[in-house]
Amino acid sequence: MLRNLYDWVLHWAETPYGIWALFLLAFAESSFFPVPPDILLIALAVAIPKKSLKYAMVCSVGSVLGGCFGYLIGWQFMAGIGEKIISFYNLTDKIEYIQALYMQYDAWAISIAGFTPIPYKIFTISAGAFDINFSVFIIASILSRSARFFLVGGLIYFFGAGIQAFIDKYFNQLAIAFTVLLVAGFVIIKYLF
After folding, report:
1. CA proximity to 91, closest of 69, 106, 113
2. What percent of the chain has pLDDT over 70?
3. What are the CA-CA distances from residue 69 to residues 76, 78, 178 (Å)?
4. Which position has the higher pLDDT, 66 or 193?
5. How far apart are CA 39 and CA 9, in angstroms?
6. Nearest Cα residue to 144 out of 169, 107, 173
7. Which of 15, 33, 62, 81 could form a disulfide with 26 if both were Cys (CB 3.0 to 4.6 A apart)?
8. How far is C-alpha 140 from the chain's CA centre?
9. What is the value of pTM for the model shown?
10. Which of 142, 120, 126, 112 is nearest to 33 (CA)?
């Protein structure tokens, strides 16, 4: 089933509706859909590398707005819709752990989830359910989701289609390395200032 979804997402890159599909996919993935938008972002960017940054922006905006929808689901509809989405992904037991992360790290939890391959939808829904400060949520989402998608778009923009195989093969490692560097940067800033 996931392979069929993957192929269906990729087919949008070959249509004139690719950019709209990218926006909708990024929106849906941040709140309920299982396929990450990176797949379509890479396909579109490889097809026209000069538009890679534009595609990254569309993906970022769609993802942040979808995250707001996920927040709304958690905030207003956790008992009905939110719990069903979380149980669909078999992550019900992770909710307590995510709540502990929010209580301890707040924006850091959102930022790390927004950038890494961790299912972002779980964090958006739980942020609303746990009533995380919406301004903090938005800022962390904008920074982390933009960093994720502009990293992919920027690599393709500067290195062309040849970078696709590298991104596909090492995306998780690149995301982890960037997250470690991001956290280290904040720790250094905290102790220097």
Report:
1. 113
2. 85
3. 10, 12, 26
4. 66
5. 8
6. 107
7. 62
8. 11
9. 0.77
10. 120
Average pLDDT over residues 103-131: 81
CA distances from 151 to 40, 53, 158 (A): 15, 9, 11
Determine contact, residues 105/111, Cβ cutoff 8 Å: no
Q: What pLDDT sits at residue 84?
A: 83
CB of 123 closer than 8 Å to CB of 114: yes
CB 93 within 8 A of CB 150: no
- Name the residue type at position 53: L
Domain ranges of the chain: 2-192
Concatenated DSSP letters for 71-140? Answer: HHHHHHHIIIIIHHHHHHTT-GGGHHHHHHHHHHHTHHHHHHHHHSSS-HHHHHHHHHHTT--HHHHHHH
In the numeric block, the tokens 């979808």 are attached to 66
Residue 190 confidence (pLDDT) above 60? no
29/23 Cα distance (integer angstroms): 10
